[in-house]
Amino acid sequence: MLKPVAKPADEYPMRINKYLAHEGISTRRGADELIARGKVLINGRVATLGEKVNKGDKVELRGKDASKKYLYYAYNKPVGVITHSPQLGEKDIKGSVPMDVFPIGRLDKESSGLIILTNDGRVTDRLLNPEYDHDKEYRVRVNETLREAFKKTMEGGVDIEGYLTAPCVVRKTGPKSFNITLTEGKKHQIRRMVAALHNTVIELERTRILNIRLEDLKPGAWRPIEGEELKDFLTKIGMK
């Protein structure tokens, strides 16, 4: 059965895989797989890889499996566990949980805290695409006493190797600790921001992603995201 796909508000022409990712149908890689299998139609004909969609085109998806059960979990990644692509002797998240799910986003090996696990590839683009502003909160402890201007400087943007970070919210929680809320996620961003202000992160824990909170979840443990919490989360990333 053919299922019409609504169009996102974006510039045209748009690559078909980006289009499907924006619409929450699939990740871009997953969209390429659907296209290669002949599952995507543009104006009634089978789409090809790399093809672009113009405004007013009719995009359809056929043979979609509507029976798949999507799973969502909050997981507390311990220090020392790799998010993706472990090397010899390293332990990753997929090897630490018994469900057929994958992590959305990353936390470096020396950081801990909240990671969302799911089998829903549609979430990837909606949560990680820099076009969307999704706030994440972290608890940070540093090596040296925070300077007087630390909060104001961090919140106003820090130059990390030629890139000026976006405004953020910082709350000091002690002479050597603070909480920070970001809407972007450059590689090792908090560690690099702190280093640019002549200090060193010695402990970093992510405590919140949008409305999903770590709370009292123990390291290495997970819990299902369901009910109103899940509904709110999917609404915030534009999937409801």
Q: What does this protein structure show overall?
A:
This protein has 240 residues and is α+β, with helices and mostly antiparallel strands. The chain folds into three domains: 2-62, Structural Genomics Hypothetical 15.5 Kd Protein In mrcA-pckA Intergenic Region, Chain A, CATH 3.10.290; 72-130 and 211-236, 2-Layer Sandwich (Alpha-Beta Plaits); 136-209, Alpha-Beta Plaits, CATH 3.30.70.1560. The chain is 20% helix and 30% strand. The chain has six helices and 19 strands. The chain has helices at residues 16-22, 28-36, 122-128, 150-156, 189-196, 227-236; strands at 2-4, 14-15, 40-42, 45-46, 52-53, 59-62, 72-77, 81-82, 91-92, 102-104, 112-118, 136-142, 159-160, 163-164, 169-174, 177-182, 201-209, 212-213, 222-224. Strands 7, 10, 11, 12, 15, 16, 17, 18 and 19 form a nine-stranded mixed beta sheet that branches. A four-stranded antiparallel beta sheet has the order 1-6-3-4, with no helix packed on it. The radius of gyration is 20 Å and the shape is globular. The two termini are 23 Å apart. Residues 1-9 have low confidence and may be disordered.
State the gist of this model.
The protein has 240 residues and is an alpha+beta fold. It is 20% helix and 30% strand.
